[in-house]
């Protein structure tokens, strides 16, 4: 099957159906944007993350934050569901 990958933010963020179940990842690696954001939200600083993932660059972490900000720029509509 020919799966099509999508690339964002200067090819730093990629979405490929066959990598990490289609979650956004960093440069096609099996490191998801979500993982980096979770480390940051837990209080780790970028340098600590880079020590744990030496294949990453500081620009990758910035790309994760930019990607998350761009996602929040959309309009969301909440629907009531039966309780």
Helix/strand layout:
Elements: E1 6-8, E2 13-15, E3 25-26, H1 33-41, H2 46-52, H3 58-71
Antiparallel strand pairs: 1-2, 2-3
Helix pairs in contact: 1-3
What does this structure look like?
With 83 residues, the chain is an alpha+beta fold. It has one domain: Winged helix-like DNA-binding domain superfamily/Winged helix DNA-binding domain (Arc Repressor Mutant, subunit A, Orthogonal Bundle). Helix content is 36%, strand content 10%. The protein is built from 3 helices and 3 strands. A 3-stranded antiparallel sheet has the order 1-2-3. β1 and β2 form a beta hairpin. α1 packs across α3.
Enumerate how many helices there are, as a single number: 3
The succession of helices and strands, N to C, reads EEEHHH
Give the total of domains: 1
How would you characterize the largest beta sheet?
3 strands, antiparallel
Order of strands across the widest beta sheet?
1-2-3
**Corresponding CATH architecture:** Orthogonal Bundle
Radius of gyration: 15 Å
- Determine and state the CATH class: Mainly Alpha
Average pLDDT, all residues: 90
Give the termini distance in whole angstroms: 41 Å
